Each structure stands twice: as C-alpha cells, then as structure tokens.
Amino acid sequence: MASLNRIRTGPSAGGAVRRKGIVPVPENTHATVQAVDVRQVKDWLDRNEIVLVDVRETSEYEKEHIAGALLLPLSNFDPEFFPALPDKKVVLHCAVGKRSEAAGRMLLKEGHADVIHMAGGIEAWKAAGFATEIQLVAPGEAEAQPVLLCPTPGEVLQEEYLKPLGISAAQLARATGLLEGRVNDVLAGKSPVGVEMSLRLARYFSTAGDFWVRLQLEYDLERTKHSVGEQIRREITPRASAL
Fold first, then answer.
1. Is the per-residue pLDDT at 94 higher than 80?
2. pLDDT tens digits, residue range 201-233?
3. Which CATH architecture has domain 22-134?
C-alpha cells in the first residue's frame, strides 16, 4: 500500500495558523494533534473536502457509524502504511475522541503533518443532532460466520498433498500408523492435529517436524481472535500501559 503523501502546513510569519472550528490541544500534551469540533467536520463532509476515518473496532462500526466514514480499527492501525490521500484532509474519529487522538499521535510520530481528529467522537456527533447509519438485522437472521484466512491443516493436507498425489485417507492412515477415522476427522476440520500426528505426517511427506502443528496453531489463533479477541482487548490492559 502506498504511504500517505505528507502535506505540511506550517505556522505563518505571525504565529500558528488557527482555522475555523479547530480547538487547540492542551499545552501539556507533547503532540500537536488538532481537535476539530463536529460541526466543522460536518461542514467539511458536506463539501466533500475530507476523508473521515473511524478508528473504532469493527463491531462498533457495524452497529453504528457516520455515513461515508472509512473503517481503520486502532487495533490494526499502522501509521507507516497509512493510505495515500493527497487531495483531501484526513480526519480521525472514534467514540469519544480518545482513540482518535491516540491514532493521531501515532501518525505524528511517523512524521505525518496536519493530523486532525474529531473532538468528542461519534457521541458528540449524535449529541449535535447529526445522523448516523445503523445496521439493521432482520429477526431470526443468522449471524454471519467470520471469514478465516488461515486454512485448517486438513484443508492443506487434502488440497496440497492427498489430491495431487492420489492418496486416499485409508492409504494415508496405513502408511503413517494413524487411525483412518482420525485422519478423516482432521480432513473434515473436526479434529486438530497434535504433535505426534504432525511428526508422523512430516516423516511421510518429508516436511519439517513442526509444519503440521504450526498450521494448526495459526488456524486456532485466528479463530480465537475472531471469537474472543475483542473481549480480551476490553478486559485486559497491557502491563506497560498500566504503569
């Protein structure tokens, strides 16, 4: 992804530039993230002069968001690869303004200039009477299952080894000393690959000894992040941040 073209707007000869709607950040903060009130942001949006970036988490965005806002969760926020938007100002926002200011500080540390966030976040936006989009779910509609990028070890085993080599589950079981039912369960994603099975498959297919169990670990990590990752982030504060 291309890096953001950094548009620098320095102070004028008579002092720092003050724009309409911009609230100065308190002097005791080290970064100069510009806090902009919601009415100024609304005016900019109506004139198509900015790109509004929502740094809340996906679950928050899906429940309610400002129309036209792009989602870039703070948990995945990487200032080094911030998208290139040379023709418009970028305004960050979150729920109440804390996370968006934190994201702004990250951009400043990476060297970006003219970093702006919306004071008060989406809560201030709603308090001002501005509309949001709410996701409507039909009664009884099944919750969509997350799309996992990491395949199960069974998928890899089936698609990259058994099918190309014309090996059946029964043949693999006999060759590796595994139970056929166990092999079938792994292929179907019903059973995980353990350390012993990983070693047996590695010996037969001449892969690294930990290859199969690492596939299992990567799949389990991604699946668990989807199911409880957000809850863990809410419940646990990193030790370094708590000091």
1. yes
2. 999 999 888 889 988 998 888 888 888 888 888
3. 3-Layer(aba) Sandwich (3.40)
